[in-house]
Amino acid sequence: MTKGVLGMMLCVLTLSGCGLIYTNVSIPRAYRSATSGDVPNGKTDTSVTGEACNQSVLFLVAWGNGGYAAAVKNALRDQPSNAMLYDVTADTRAQSVLFGLYTRFCTIISGKVAHL
Fold this sequence. Notes:
The chain is of the alpha+beta class. It is built from two helices and five strands; from the N terminus they run H-E-E-E-H-E-E. A five-stranded antiparallel β-sheet has the order 1-4-5-2-3. The model has no long low-confidence stretch (mean pLDDT 81).
């Protein structure tokens, strides 16, 4: 009985696509944003990137703010308060080491900056 349960768990872990020792994957996400036709844009609009992450250790302690809002705030940190992003892309990056004993999930936002 125990061997069957362990064999089933090993099969599920092996076929799930996650790396048992190390995982480093990037996943595109959907994010509705303004386009260049929706905002007053200029030829000097710059591109920016922001990242926000959650981390955990030993399945016991987790910290961070890996949401869209935190990533957008990080992307616009050097911009004036009237700036907004358009043509936004959003991705997720997941990293895991040693069966998930340390994990890190990040949301990465990239876009162009318009000044209203």
